[in-house]
Amino acid sequence: DAGILGPACAAGLLVLATHVPLGKQVLARGIIFIDLAIAQIAGLGVILAQALGVDEHGFSAQFAAAAAALFGAGLLAWTDKRWPERQEPLIGTLFVLAATGGLLLLANNPQGGEHLKDLLVGQILWVNYAQLIPVALLSAVILGLMRWRRGRFNGLWFYGLFALAITASVQLVGVYLVFASLIVPALGTVSLGRRLGAAYAIGVAGYVSGLVLSALLDLPSGAMIVWTLVG
Which residues have CB under 8 Å from 213's CB, separation 6+? Predict the structure, then answer.
């Protein structure tokens, strides 16, 4: 059904548009788990907003996710400047804090398990084209800034743009697929240097084949796309 798979495929292409070049930078910097940490912090912002009675699909929830992600990005930019040799374990510590913070906030929520599943695996099949308009605009701004800076970002610039890109995608495809979209295409083309075309090809092939297989086999789309990306 193109009405279902079409928006899902478009969402995947938008995620790949920013995540493939950012993934190359993440791999080059050796801070592999920064995307998991920032995505989890953005998710924590959404969970906190829900706990305060905010509609999870409204603008306020998006604002909460962006504010949380930018706070996490600012914190990581500061630790990178102060303790660069300890950045990777600090990123891991921030990730586990955000993950367990979400569990604590959902502890008394009867639908907490479902909310947590949506955050991790995503609901890409429920995406509609209207949801993609602000994501497309933000992606265009991020790509324009990356082109203007010729892909060279340091400090708060890098972490801030990274946080905004993650915030836009985590509610579309979930934490796991955000990580896979950043790391797998970059990892699969590491021996090819800076050839973004090959990385984009891996990403597109992974998303399209994953969506098709999930429809044919009636399996969760986000999890299936992770497997086809790696394959």
Answer: 219, 224, 228
